[in-house]
Amino acid sequence: MSKLILERVRHQEMRQSNSDKLISSYLERNINELPFETARSIAGRVGVSPMTVGRYLRRLGFEGLDQLKDELRRGNSNPAWQVKGPLEGLQADIRDGELLAGLIKQQIDNLGHIYELTTKAEWRQAVTTLIEAQEVYVAAFQNVRGIAQYFAAQLSYARPRVEFIDGLNGTYAELLDGSVENRCLFLYDVRRFAAKARPLAIEARKSGVKVILLTDEFCPWAEDVADVALILPGAHGPLWDGAATITAVLDLMVSNIIVLLGEQVNERVANLTRLQNCFGDFEA
């Protein structure tokens, strides 16, 4: 399917104006990334307006980007762990040190975006919600669930009633049964987006649960399903998505919560330490 779309993109009719050429070139180079893009993100990368991207897509034969994504999904698989680019070139780059240097630079740039995120109202709202909720539930899927489990474990040192939910009971009833008011769902999902993530967020809000969604710039439904949406840069390098950026974000969030809770955290950690010593899980 992507081959047929590329043929249309490369046709001279789709390259009449300067904007056409910019969009066509971008789509041609990044065909495998399109399921994770939005019209706004494409417009920002090529320097045109989202309306211009929309008009281009209609001329290409699609009512919008979602229809184009559906076509691509039916014909392609786009795993999160995906090498982007010729393997031979990447091997040469890593021998020369250029690949790793580029990846480190990308991580440093992403850390700058993290600082910007921590200054926003959405960040403060997320921290306040995680502090004030009676119960906090954390969810993530596939190859990023381990990072969310780490966050849940760290957060449980700062405050009680934090639970990672895996959905293996088929209902998420512990979150959605309404037995306790003022619940919070902290949902972490990045491309390739899990099929359960969006319906879980929607059901949670229907049940009166506040939803904090931590995701990347490729998520097209973040602000539609979350009370608070925290948007991170997506991966644009030659290799798969890494965990450095998200781990830094989660560590900063826990640190922020610890500072605000103050002495409450000291008392909780002291009690947890006593229990650890009681059951002998740690060396002296």
TrEMBL record:
Residues 3-79 form the HTH rpiR-type domain. GO terms for biological process: carbohydrate derivative metabolic process. PROSITE patterns: HTH_RPIR. Gene3D superfamilies: Glucose-6-phosphate isomerase like protein, domain 1, Winged helix-like DNA-binding domain superfamily/Winged helix DNA-binding domain. This is MurR/RpiR family transcriptional regulator. One of its GO terms (molecular function) is carbohydrate derivative binding.
